């Protein structure tokens, strides 16, 4: 039987069975080569299903079946090897006879052995490696890292990815999560790379943010106490009191998820990764406009917005509220503001003071009207003595009524 007949297409399955049997039993038919040895040779002939090579420093001929050329799926040997190439592999069978001296060896097994050693080292040292996505399956990605590795969908990113096909053929940076060479099992992790990159980006952005600067962000989450706004790699919080110059009862009344907004950075804490933001301070203050248009002593109309024990807050312009102290509501004594005022009521107010630094306005309702004239009260004269005799009132009757005493 010729060498060609040994490895031709018709007998390829028989060859693979012999290879597997030799690997399992560890049979050695040569005093020159043993199964497991590493051999090197030069390719001199390429057939459809195998490659022939001259083995260095030997009269043996080397044969590599197409299945042993690479762990990749190929149709013809020419896809990975050419004549005159130097190839190296692990001996998986030896044929040492008078008319035939062949070693059948595997490039794939040597590559896999080296790859497993490299992968084990990468895992122990937490190194990042690069692999090419060979196949997309429902549960994740099959990746070539010298051997077939697998990235479960849950370890692909820090967020859910619906379309895995986008990664087909891509080179990805990964970490070795788990490795079992005896089971040909390699689990890879891309999520850790993504998380580490985002952590570094967050750190850089936190260091670049400056209190007082105005930046653009997107509303990504709403709570009862404020809105979280994404600035790129980090989120900041705009408290409900910082959403608008007008009083905001519900956050949803001021912003919606997905809104693009301008915000002013109030404070940055890089260690805690906390950022305080303000939407209203990124806008022109309505108080400034009000201050330019009005001065102390002006009388204008306003709307009662809130009633409190100590007075009433009256909106005198959009985003500008002033306080009418309880003592400034009426010329008459007012015990509780709600006794004389209602929320939503329109009232005339006089500006008592404008505080530019604190942006506070003091108002008065009573100063917009004249003090009512006092009604004269009848004087009553009483005699508290115990004398039962007639009093002056009894004697003179109503004559004292018209006297101004």
TrEMBL record:
Q: Which domain of life is it from?
A: Bacteria
Q: What are the Low complexity biased-composition ranges?
A: 22-34
Compositional bias per record (Basic and acidic residues), positions renumbered to this chain: 367-383
Residues in coiled coil: none
**GO cellular component entries:** cytosolic small ribosomal subunit
Species annotation: Salinicoccus cyprini
- Similarity section: Belongs to the bacterial ribosomal protein bS1 family.
Q: Where is this region: Disordered?
A: 1-34, 363-395
Name one process (GO BP) from the record.
translation
Q: Which UniProt keywords apply?
A: Ribonucleoprotein, Ribosomal protein
Mind telling me which Gene3D superfamilies this protein's record contains? Nucleic acid-binding proteins
Q: Which GO terms describe its molecular function?
A: mRNA binding; structural constituent of ribosome
Looking up SMART domains in the UniProt record yields:
S1
What this chain does, per the entry, is described as: Binds mRNA; thus facilitating recognition of the initiation point. It is needed to translate mRNA with a short Shine-Dalgarno (SD) purine-rich sequence.
Residues forming the S1 motif domain are 36-108, 126-191, 212-280, 297-366
Name of the protein in question: 30S ribosomal protein S1
> What gene codes for this chain?
rpsA
Which SUPFAM superfamilies would you find in this protein's record?
Nucleic acid-binding proteins
């Amino acid at each position: 039987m010729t060498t060609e007949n040994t490895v031709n297409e018709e007998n390829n399955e028989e060859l693979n069975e012999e290879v597997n049997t030799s690997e399992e039993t560890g049979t050695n038919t040569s005093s020159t080569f043993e199964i497991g040895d590493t051999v090197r040779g030069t390719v001199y002939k390429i057939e459809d299903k195998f490659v022939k090579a001259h083995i260095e420093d030997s009269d043996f001929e080397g044969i590599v079946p197409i299945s042993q050329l690479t762990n990749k799926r190929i149709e013809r040997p020419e896809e990975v090897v050419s004549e005159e190439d130097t190839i190296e592999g692990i001996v998986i069978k030896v044929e040492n006879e008078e008319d035939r001296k062949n070693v059948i060896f595997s490039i794939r097994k040597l590559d896999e052995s080296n790859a497993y050693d490299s992968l084990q080292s990468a895992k122990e040292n937490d190194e990042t490696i690069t692999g090419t996505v060979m196949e997309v399956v429902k549960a994740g990605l099959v990746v070539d890292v010298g051997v077939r590795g697998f990235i479960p969908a849950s370890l692909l990113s820090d967020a859910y990815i619906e379309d895995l096909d986008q990664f087909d053929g891509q080179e990805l940076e990964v970490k070795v999560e788990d490795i079992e060479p005896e089971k040909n099992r390699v689990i890879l992790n891309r999520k850790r790379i993504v998380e580490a990159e985002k952590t570094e980006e967050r750190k850089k952005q936190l260091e670049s943010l400056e209190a007082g600067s105005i930046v653009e962000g997107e509303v990504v989450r709403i709570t009862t106490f404020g809105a979280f706004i994404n600035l790129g790699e980090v989120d900041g919080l705009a408290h409900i009191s910082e959403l608008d110059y007008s009083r905001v009862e519900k956050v949803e009344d001021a912003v919606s998820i997905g809104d693009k907004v301008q915000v002013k950075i109030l404070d940055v804490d890089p260690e805690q990764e906390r950022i305080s933001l303000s939407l209203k301070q990124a806008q022109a203050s309505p108080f400034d406009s009000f201050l330019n248009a009005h001065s102390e002593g002006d009388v204008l109309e306003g709307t009662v917005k809130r009633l409190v024990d100590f007075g009433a807050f009256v909106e005198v312009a959009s985003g500008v509220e002033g306080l009418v102290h309880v003592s400034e509501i009426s010329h008459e004594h007012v015990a509780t503001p709600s006794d004389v005022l209602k929320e939503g009521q329109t009232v005339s107010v006089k500006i008592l003071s404008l505080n530019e630094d604190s942006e506070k306005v003091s108002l008065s309702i009573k100063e917009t009207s004249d003090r009512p004239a006092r009604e004269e009260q009848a004087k009553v004269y009483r005699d508290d003595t115990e004398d039962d005799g007639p009093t002056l009132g009894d004697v003179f009757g109503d004559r004292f009524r018209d006297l101004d005493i």
